[in-house]
Amino acid sequence: MQITNGLVIFDPGYEEGPCSAGSVLPSLPEADRKAFHDALFHDAVDRFHGFPGAVVTARFCEAGMMEALRETWPSLHAEADGHELVEARLSAAIEEQFEHGARRLLVLFPTAAAIPMRVIDAAFTLLDTFDDAVVIGPTEGGDTYAIGLRWSHPEIPAAFPGGSVHRLDRILRCLSCIESTLHMLQSWYDLRTPADFARLAADLDADTSGYRSLRVWAATHPSLFLSPQESPGRKG
Q1: 220 phi, psi to nearest 5 deg
Q2: How many domains does the chain have?
Q3: Is 184 helix (H, G, I), strand (E, B) or coil?
Q4: Is-contact 111 145, C-beta < 8 A?
């Protein structure tokens, strides 16, 4: 499979245990938090699986996802890569793309499910324009929704152990040690705080054709999608 533009939708795997400060997710049972994570990944695949001009691959660690993905998107190139360490999985996904001749590679994480298509277009434009470009899509809470590369940088997967909190800082520290030109995409919201979920609710209302899995999940957790002004018990 010859690749010019590669787009990998990469699921780092569900992070069990405590969430970051300010997150509303700890109020939910573990199974519901896992279902939310899976809904994000499925909607990221749904949004970008047909991205024009790119060979799209979905990478995930749970083999049980394969059947659902293949049933929904029969032509999707999907790979379940087991429960290895996330940095090893990400490194293998990146290396595979460049071994198949990719000249530009964009890795999207599940939080990219709500990212506008124009931001992804901008990432590929930067990669096409600058030979030494590294493109980062930052989130407001210190995570990363996208990484764009012109060649493999083993320093980047090495920044992934330790979970999503402060991941952006770890990546930027790693990049300071290599020769590259860093380009930052538009910052985007995380999905942790009540304000984040209010913004997601607005996106769900604005894009009535997308976010199919998130819509199902949101219907069973309506209280998370209330704005602070609408929250129960708030005094006017």
Answers
A1: -95, -5
A2: 1
A3: strand
A4: yes
Q: Is 133 helix (H, G, I), strand (E, B) or coil?
A: strand
> Where in the sequence is the domain holding 117, given as residue range(s)?
5-188
Q: Hey, what are 152's tokens? A: 């493999």
Q: What predicted TM-score, i.e. pTM, was given to this entire model? A: 0.87
The sign one gets for the Cα dihedral 31, 34, 38, 40 is positive
Looking at residue 176, its amino acid is S
The pLDDT profile of the chain, 236 residues, written as one tens digit per residue, is 556 899 999 988 876 655 554 566 767 888 888 888 899 999 999 999 989 889 899 998 887 788 888 888 888 889 887 767 888 888 889 998 998 888 999 999 988 888 888 999 999 999 999 988 999 999 988 889 999 999 888 778 877 765 566 688 888 888 887 778 899 999 998 888 888 888 888 888 887 777 889 889 988 888 877 654 444 433 33
Tell me whether residue 204 is in a domain.
no
CATH number for the domain spanning 53: value is: 3.90.550.10
